[in-house]
Write a structure and sequence with these properties.
By secondary structure, the protein is α+β, with helices and mostly antiparallel strands. It is about 40% helix and about 25% strand. It has two domains: about 270 residues, no CATH class; about 40 residues, no CATH class. Helix 4 packs antiparallel against helix 6. It is flat.
């Protein structure tokens, strides 16, 4: 597979090379639509037309559209419980102090803690993101490196070629730039462990330039997962529908109507009238005037909303952290508080199974970057350097 892709890229056959790679674009776009409250299905409700007896349109009655931002809340809680506090790095090997110090300095220069949180947040929201290492020479002519986070929401297209063992054989980054005339220029950058190919879509076809991959590894850490709210989409949609219908009902019934006795009914109130008066026939003198109010809100709807909220959060392993709940926990011990957050701990532990591997890959790329690009004098120490990582609990003791 790798030899085939390298051959196709070196001969400029970009379209054929792309057929050997997979992309997650459609799934990412679907997840992003659910992540954005403005794109929820509830927003497709139309206002209700009101006609007179002759069939002429009198006005439009607003129908409420109340999307609930569950996906963002669920995603942020999942992020906090795995990367809420920085990852701790430990040197396991001996005689590699200089290389490890260079590694720690590199972490600060790359703003690793911010970038890893960004990658996790994007992957939880759209199922995929990537961290790309880009070596370059700074203004002083010294080798340096920056990290770029790639995601569909940032305008990036991600393509991957896998081998039979689930390892990345090749990685491609698709993006657009714009010329001085305002035309769109399509770019595809391909990365293998030995070569990097830069393809530009020009009028006569793809123009390909290539260079050596001086890092010696595919300089990408790929984050892939299910969207954090997977499995509860119908529950979220149902709660949004009930909330929107309830808002319409409240507009209709929440304001009291004045009831007056009379021999005939003189008028009927309109739905949007603020001061509604209903004139009824007959009645005693003592009850000549009274108010009609909505005393019994539907209890079944309230119970269903509570059921939906409970299952949306519990089935996504998300604790219900809000001000009212936290007020009642002021005297709770740390151990008891941790037990209350056990759902989020379970979810974080599941994520760590994958992120352990991702952090190991990140470490290996950084060590190769130091040894082959940033400070070749430390290559011997880098070859012997072993770094372990440790996730921290999200809250202090």
């Amino acid at each position: 597979m790798e030899r085939t892709i390298n051959h196709l890229l070196s001969t400029g056959e970009i379209d054929k090379a792309m057929t050997l790679m997979s992309t997650n674009n459609e799934r990412a776009e679907e997840a992003l639509r659910e992540y954005n409250p403005a794109c929820h299905a509830i927003n497709q409700r139309h206002d209700k037309p009101i006609f007179d007896k002759s069939g002429h349109l009198k006005r439009w009655v607003k129908r409420w559209k109340l999307p609930i931002d569950y996906p963002r809340y669920i995603n942020e809680i999942a992020l906090v419980f795995i990367y809420g506090r920085p990852v701790v790095w430990r040197q396991v090997s001996e005689g590699t102090d200089q290389a490890f110090l260079r590694f720690e300095n590199l972490m600060k220069r790359l703003h690793f803690n911010a970038r890893i949180r960004e990658c996790k947040r994007l992957a939880g929201a759209e199922t995929q993101s990537a961290m790309l290492f880009i070596p370059y020479r700074n203004k002083q002519g010294v080798a340096d490196c920056r990290l770029r986070v790639l995601a569909k929401s940032k305008g990036d297209d991600i393509y991957v070629a896998w081998d039979h063992f689930g390892c990345i054989n090749a990685f491609a980054w698709g993006y657009n730039t714009y010329s001085m005339e305002g035309t769109t220029i399509r770019h595809l950058d391909f990365f293998t462990d030995q070569r990097i190919y830069h393809a530009v879509d020009e009028e006569e076809g793809w123009k390909v330039t290539e260079e050596d991959n001086i890092i010696g590894k595919i300089p990408v850490v790929l984050f892939e997962q299910e969207k954090e709210w997977a499995g509860v989409e119908p529950l979220i949609e149902r709660e949004e529908y009930i909330a929107s219908r309830n808002a319409d009902t409240n507009d209709y019934f929440s304001d009291p109507m004045l009831i007056l006795d009379a021999d005939i009914i003189k008028n009927m109130p309109e739905k949007n009238d603020e001061n509604k008066t209903l004139v009824k026939q007959g009645g005693s003198a003592e009850a000549a005037a009274s108010y009609l109010t909505w005393d019994n809100a539907p209890e079944n709807k309230q119970k269903e909303i509570e059921w939906l909220q409970n299952h949306i959060l519990s089935k996504t392993f998300t604790p219900n952290i809000d001000f009212d709940n936290m007020k009642s926990l002021s005297n709770v011990s740390g151990k008891a508080l941790k037990q209350l957050m056990v759902l989020a701990d379970i979810k974080a532990a599941r994520h760590k199974e994958k992120h352990d591997e991702l952090l190991d890959r990140f470490t290996n790329i950084c060590i190769a970057l130091i040894a082959n690009v940033l400070d070749v004098s430390l290559k011997q120490q880098c070859d012997a350097l072993v770094i372990a990582h440790e996730f921290q609990p999200p809250f202090d003791d």
